[in-house]
Design brief:
The protein is an alpha/beta fold. The protein has one domain: 3-Layer(aba) Sandwich (Rossmann fold). It is 36% helix and 24% strand. The chain is built from eight helices and ten strands.
Length: 230
């Protein structure tokens, strides 16, 4: 059976809606926690690596030195073209490992909203979310890595998703976020939400409104990507 390793940077940002379809494809799934487990070794060995989000910056290696191990292992994995999926911080780590700068964005992008797909994006697995809101929760941006194909953008962040071949996909947003578990995000990021002036009640209400569409789109997106290489 193929094995998927999930790299988790904060407990509630995990596979979410991607867990069930991945298991249904026959993957065994294990989770490693950054800063605690041997993340570098896990990244190198997995058939599929999924890098989840987190509230730290790729460039904060002095404060979070475990990022150096992640980046080194990622660089090896991506150079070999092995299946890798990055979500938010995971996408930023992939961009950095591929040689692209990662830096603070103009302002935070938090909440549900649509993304603009490029022509390549409309021909990709992301076509399923062309009209479906996704959860944005980031403050950092990255340049497009050399050789990468831009798949999506937003008004605030021109690089929202990229791919390199069929096996490497990086998503700045959170299509995996499970609306049923939004309270974990609201509690876990409470300080950030308050500092950013985000309307928590409104965000909770919007989550309920988009739940059905988000839950329907997530497994389709993942399965289409997996169909491209698995």
């Amino acid at each position: 059976m193929p094995h998927a390793t999930v790299v988790r940077h904060v407990l509630f940002e995990d596979l979410g809606l991607f867990a069930a379809p991945l298991a249904a494809r026959g993957f065994t799934i294990s989770t490693v926690d950054a800063g605690i487990d041997d993340v570098g070794g896990a990244i190198r060995e997995a058939d599929l690596t999924v890098l989840c989000g987190g509230p730290i910056g790729v460039y904060e290696t002095e404060h979070y030195p475990f990022l150096l191990d992640e980046l080194a292992a990622l660089e090896e994995r991506l150079e070999a073209g092995r299946p890798t999926l990055g979500l938010c911080l995971g996408a930023q780590l992939m961009a950095a490992a591929l040689g692209a700068p990662v830096y603070p964005g103009r302002r935070k992008e938090i909440g549900w909203g649509r993304i603009g797909l490029t022509l390549d994006g409309r021909d990709s697995c992301l076509s399923v979310i062309a009209e479906t809101p996704v959860l944005h929760w980031h403050a950092d941006a990255f340049d497009l890595p050399p050789g990468a194909v831009l798949l999506a953008r937003s008004d605030l962040y021109p690089h929202q998703a990229f791919s390199i071949g069929p096996q490497i996909l990086a998503l700045q947003f959170h299509p995996e976020a499970d609306p049923r578990r939004i309270e974990q995000w609201l509690i876990g990021h409470a300080a950030e939400l308050t500092a950013s002036g985000i309307d928590v009640v409104g965000l909770r209400s919007k989550t309920a409104a988009v739940r059905a569409a988000v839950e329907a789109a997530a497994p389709v997106l993942l399965n289409r990507w997996l169909d491209g290489w698995a």
